[in-house]
Design brief:
The structure is a single chain. The protein is mainly alpha-helical. The chain folds into two domains: about 80 residues, DNA polymerase, domain 1 (Orthogonal Bundle); about 190 residues, Intergrase catalytic core (hpI Integrase, Chain A, Orthogonal Bundle). The chain has 13 helices and four strands. Strand 3 and strand 4 form a beta hairpin. Helix 1 runs antiparallel to helix 2 and helix 10 packs across helix 13. The chain is elongated and about 75 Å long. It starts with 8 loop residues before the first helix and ends in a 7-residue tail after the last helix.
């Protein structure tokens, strides 16, 4: 159907309902309008009144969406719009059953997590704080902050912590602590997803970085502040501040854009699996409830091996 074709009044009325009563965002309304226009076009082409459409019709039209090359997410949005229409008509008595019920969109492929190469992760961890970097002029870049940022990178990459787990760390164990680092035992105790606690080892580089940061911490921390990592205001560091600092550090280390805290967790898991091959151990260190969640890193490991093969094997080049 031509994009200029007007939407039928009964479909336009449904969009009005979504706008006024459901208060959907303008972008969502636009996507629903496009989906309803497709539905209208398919029904007219097949000579089917929308109010009398059966599940077999809807399945056929979903098949047409797939043949047009629509992405799984776009098909899911279309189905949501169609299902909402028939549900609304059901409340009005226009239809007695929803023909979209039971129809599921195709599963979208899960994108692989993005991890740094070993050399890139090492470059980020080893890069010194550039206190005189003119590119960050006007932004506080003191030795204390440089020490804090170095300790953060070492913990994210060296122990595979989530950003919430890292920022939830306190300087010592106490009754209300979500997490803490035991320097003597070289262990981080964290509160993960589902309020599940776990302990992970802290490597030598991270311990040294933490000790250096703890020497500087009194210069920044407010009186009585328990958080291990604090901001320039002396209070617990928040995610956006951490993301911004890490982005600056990655840029100074000349790494690709888009480096974020969770990428260091992905790098920790991928590099550990490449070295050890022990999927169960990686699962426990990451705090995954299911091994299937951890198995995604085997695909990253295979990608790494495939790149090595393509670059080194004399029979790898097929062209």
């Amino acid at each position: 159907m031509d994009a200029a074709t007007p939407l039928a009044p009964e479909l336009q009325a449904f969009l009005g309902h979504l706008q006024v009563e459901r208060r959907l965002a303008s972008r969502t309304l636009a996507m629903y309008g496009e989906a309803l226009l497709r539905l209208q076009g398919y029904a007219q082409a097949d000579g089917v009144a929308l109010a009398r459409a059966m599940p077999l019709h809807l399945r056929h039209w979903v098949g047409q969406l797939r043949r047009r090359g629509l992405a799984p997410r776009s098909i899911a949005i279309a189905l949501a719009a169609w299902r909402g229409l028939y549900r609304w008509w059901g409340r009005q008595g226009v239809v007695t059953a929803n023909p979209v019920d039971g129809i599921r969109p195709p599963k979208a492929p899960k994108p692989l997590p993005k991890a740094l190469a070993v050399e890139q992760a090492m470059a980020l961890a080893d890069h010194p704080g550039a206190m005189t970097d003119p590119a960050v002029a006007g932004r506080a870049n003191t030795p204390a902050l440089a020490a804090r940022d170095a300790a953060i990178v070492e913990l994210l990459y060296g122990s595979g912590l989530r950003i919430a787990e890292l920022l939830g760390l306190d300087t010592a164990a106490h009754a209300g602590a979500a997490g803490w680092v035991d320097l003597a035992d070289a262990t981080a105790h964290v509160l993960g997803k589902g309020s599940k606690r776990r302990s992970v080892p802290v490597g030598r580089s991270a311990l040294l970085a933490l000790q250096a940061w703890l020497e500087h911490r009194p210069q920044l921390a407010a009186a009585g502040e328990l958080a291990l990592f604090v901001s320039q205001r002396g209070t617990r560091l928040v995610p956006n501040q951490l993301r911004s600092r890490l982005k600056d550090q990655a840029r100074r280390a000349e790494l690709p854009t888009g480096v974020h805290p969770h990428m260091l967790r992905h790098s920790f898991a991928s590099h550990l699996l490449q070295s050890s091959g022990d999927l169960r151990a990686v699962q426990e260190l990451l705090g995954h409830a299911s091994i299937s969640t951890t198995q995604v890193y085997t695909k990253l490991d295979f990608q790494h091996l495939a790149k090595v093969y393509d670059a080194a094997h004399p029979r790898a080049k097929r062209r």
